[in-house]
Amino acid sequence: MKSKIPIIVVAVMAILMGLYPLIYLSLDENVGFLSSKPVEVLGSNIWMTCFYFHIIFGGISLLTGWSQFIPKWRNKYLKTHRKLGLVYLASVTLGGISGFYMALFANGGLVSSLGFGSLAFLWLFFTLKAYLGIINRDIDSHQQWMLRSYALTFAAVTLRLWLPALTAFGLEFLFAYKIISWLSWVPNLIFIEWVIRRLQVKPGYS
Fold this sequence. Notes:
Helix content: over 70%
Number of strands: 0
Mean pLDDT: 86
Shape: globular
Largest sheet: none
């Protein structure tokens, strides 16, 4: 946390992945993730609406969240910090609810649905806890829950790092995807718990 390198790496990856939804503006169903979905799913207006909600607001969560962990910036621009926090809260709410619905139709069946469904539920829950923390003026609680929340937001990045890595080792896509439905976020959460508990996170990091 004393080094600027981790936050720079997180920022670069978050910005790149936060802008990733732009590729879907072509509305081409053969682009990226959409190419893996069956026609029946792509023909559902509800699913497609949730898909665009999820990638757009998930992207906004990535883009707005990382800057909140820079103490000097936050302290200097406290009003902006609060406004971005509200944008993050709204984005996670919309992205999480739509993501939970999408999890019901995840590639890989029940294992993937449980993995991504758990991710969406915890993402919403952690963010709500962070919001309640600041409402109750419990800064420590707010910071710690925000760290957990953004660790799950960052699953959008780690998913796209792990998936090609697993398939490169010869794993069949659907089998790799079942693993990714958990691997994309569980290690993130374990790591951030280590940060919170072992490094004793203090006010100034969220």
